[in-house]
Write a structure and sequence with these properties.
transmembrane helix; about 75% helix; 14 helices; about 375 residues; transmembrane; mainly alpha; membrane; Membrane protein YkvI; single chain; Hydantoin permease; YkvI-like
Length: about 375
């Protein structure tokens, strides 16, 4: 029972780390899948397979090499120097993405709850700091609550869409997009999201006791991500092409299902922002702790302060420059992960702190009693 619970916690943390605000609003799914019409169903299945394969391999490999942070993992994949450069670039992207997510949390409080923008920022920051004091355990426990709610909402949206007269369109939707772009899209999507998710999946794997738990957690987590992708695509396809005009396409569907579902949806968007924010801050803290001679709590506070400052001014334009670069780098990272051989089980990793036990020196005969 304990191992089953641990497997589900790993699966839910995997899902919660991948499913961020862009996923919840529907924009990511619309841009990477639904806009490609009839190809989307097949590319979502392909993307699900890649999430299962590479997500599981990343976690098991991270555990076997004893990687404490995603920087350790990247150094294993690319070597010390190149891995360090890639990790620093990932650090910048994570801080940028979290600054925008923090701003999104403030916008939810201001636009939908009638509270001050700064209130949303401060609630997110204080809640994140308190949760991070519990470490990876707190992150896993939080996702064990948030992810089942996400899956439940996905089921509600599916059952509601079944009554729509255009529910069948997800299999036959016509598109003018090229087939090449459609089949490249799932690889871009999975590579980018796994490149970001390594910040929490790598240290989580390090604290797992065996490969079997990680393997089942990766499989269940990948299937859960695929299910939520398909549910959103199924719902949005029925409302194409009109749904393209909405900034929050999934919100336009959820808001038609009544006040209760609308409130649950807004809560889930905030919780998805919150869970991804916490996970990324945790990963960044572990990386910086290997470089800076200060405590984890101080590093966490400084990273959050940086995100808070950037959330005041907006980081979208700068991130718009870095995003394509990180997307291309993520593809290289994913290919490198595919080509990197798996470390045999039981073999000490390069980053595992090992203790060598030496035989005691023989005592000279003259000193023996």
């Amino acid at each position: 029972m304990r191992q089953t619970l641990r497997t589900l916690q790993i699966a839910f943390t995997y899902i919660g780390t991948i499913v961020g605000a862009g996923f919840a609003t529907g924009q990511e799914i619309l841009q990477f899948f639904t806009q490609y019409g009839r190809w989307a169903t097949l590319t979502i299945i392909l993307s699900t397979g890649v999430f299962i394969w590479l997500g599981t391999k990343m976690m098991i490999l991270a555990r076997r090499i004893g990687a404490e942070s995603y920087e350790d993992f990247n150094r294993h994949l690319f070597g010390k120097n190149t891995g360090g450069i890639i990790s620093l670039f990932t650090l910048l992207i994570l801080i940028g993405v979290n600054s925008i997510m923090l701003a999104g949390a403030g916008a939810i409080f201001e636009e939908h709850l009638g509270l001050h923008y700064q209130t949303g920022l401060l609630v997110t920051l204080v809640g994140s700091y308190l949760l991070l004091k519990r470490g990876i355990t707190g992150i896993m426990q939080m996702n064990s609550v948030v992810v089942p709610l996400m899956l439940t909402l996905s089921l509600i949206i599916i059952f509601n869409t079944l009554e729509h007269p255009e529910a069948h369109r997800f299999m036959s939707l016509v598109t003018e997009r090229s087939a090449i772009a459609a089949w490249l899209s799932p690889f871009l999507y999975t590579a980018f999201n796994l490149g970001m998710a390594q910040a929490v999946l790598v240290p989580m794997a390090r604290h797992s006791k065996n490969d079997r738990t990680l393997a089942f957690g990766g499989i269940i987590g990948g299937l859960g991500i695929g299910f939520m992708l398909m549910a959103a695509h199924f719902a949005m396809s029925a409302h194409m092409p009109g749904i393209l005009q909405f900034e929050i396409p999934m919100g336009s569907i959820a808001f038609r299902l009544g006040t209760l579902v609308q409130l649950v949806y807004l809560l889930l968007i905030f919780l998805e922002i919150f869970s991804t924010f916490v996970a990324d801050i945790y990963g960044v803290t572990l990386q910086l702790a290997q470089r800076l001679p200060i405590s984890h709590s101080v590093i966490t506070a400084l990273v959050m302060l940086t995100c808070y400052v950037f959330s005041q001014f907006g980081f979208s334009s700068l991130l718009g420059l870095f995003y394509p670069m990180f997307g291309a780098l993520s593809l290289v990272w994913a290919v490198r992960l595919i080509l990197t051989p798996m470390v045999p089980p039981g073999k000490a990793g390069a980053f595992t702190k090992s203790t060598t036990i030496t035989a005691p020196k023989s005592v000279p005969r003259s000193t023996r009693k």
